[in-house]
Design goal:
The chain has 227 residues and is of the alpha+beta class. It is built from 3 helices and 11 strands; from the N terminus they run H-H-E-E-E-E-E-E-E-E-E-E-E-H.
């Protein structure tokens, strides 16, 4: 998974690049840190240990031909990097709370048009329901092309994070979602619930700074799976 600061810089560059040519200097200035990093550390592996929440039942739901699932992304912890021969990096990421809250929808390019999250609640293991504020809901999110040409993706995110408490005392969280998907001009709305279980997940990821840069400039989202 791309580190939050890395992703934030990439998205900033993409926004600038889509504006008129008078912003080209700003694009070049914004690119300098990333271009320098790309020359020094073009690619590498990151060994990640995540305090993650993984779907145990009903990993995806179907709505108007699209699949929808919640995605909790750990925003805390730390990342450590090292260089090897100045062209390859290696890193260790310890990912933990708090968690950014996302809802991901996968559809078909040219068919699925938009996703709207009408309501979202977290039902926690400590018997508390935590709803998202109304002003974060109800916005239309377009399906856009991804790194997989057969899949279009709509990504709902919000500017709040969830703090589940001490990891050794955390239980499952149920994410209740009311969503609307528009496809071929037809709208469907449904409410469904996904149970996410606390899980320690270890994995090795290969990252390419140059590849991520080109992906963002080309307007392609990184495909999020439902693991």
């Amino acid at each position: 998974m791309t580190h939050p600061q890395h992703s934030e810089l990439l998205e900033k560059i993409a926004m600038l690049a889509k504006k008129p040519l008078q912003n080209m200097n700003a694009v070049l200035l914004a690119c300098l840190p990333l271009v320098g990093a790309a020359f020094l550390t073009g690619c590498g592996n990151i060994w990640t240990t995540q305090q993650a929440f993984i779907a145990s039942k009903n990993p995806v739901s179907s709505l108007n031909g699209a699949t929808i699932f919640p995605h909790l992304v750990p925003m805390g912890g730390e990342v450590k990097f090292g260089l090897n021969t100045m062209v390859y990096f290696a890193g260790v990421e310890q990912a933990a709370a708090p968690y950014a809250i996302y809802v991901i929808a996968h559809g078909t390019p040219g068919v699925h048009e938009s996703l709207v999250i009408d309501d979202l609640k977290l039902h926690t293991s400590y018997n508390k329901t935590e709803p998202l504020p109304d002003d974060m809901l109800g916005k239309s999110i377009p399906f856009t092309k991804t790194t997989d040409p057969a899949i279009a993706q709509a990504t709902f995110g919000c500017n709040v994070v969830w703090h589940p408490g001490q990891w050794d005392q955390v239980g499952p969280v149920n994410v209740e979602i009311t969503a609307t998907v528009i496809a071929n001009g037809t709208s469907q709305t449904h409410t469904f619930t996904h149970q996410l279980d606390p899980t320690i997940r270890k994995e090795k990821q290969f990252e390419s700074i140059g590849g991520d840069f080109l992906r963002v400039i080309r307007g392609k989202e990184k495909l999020v799976d439902n693991r």
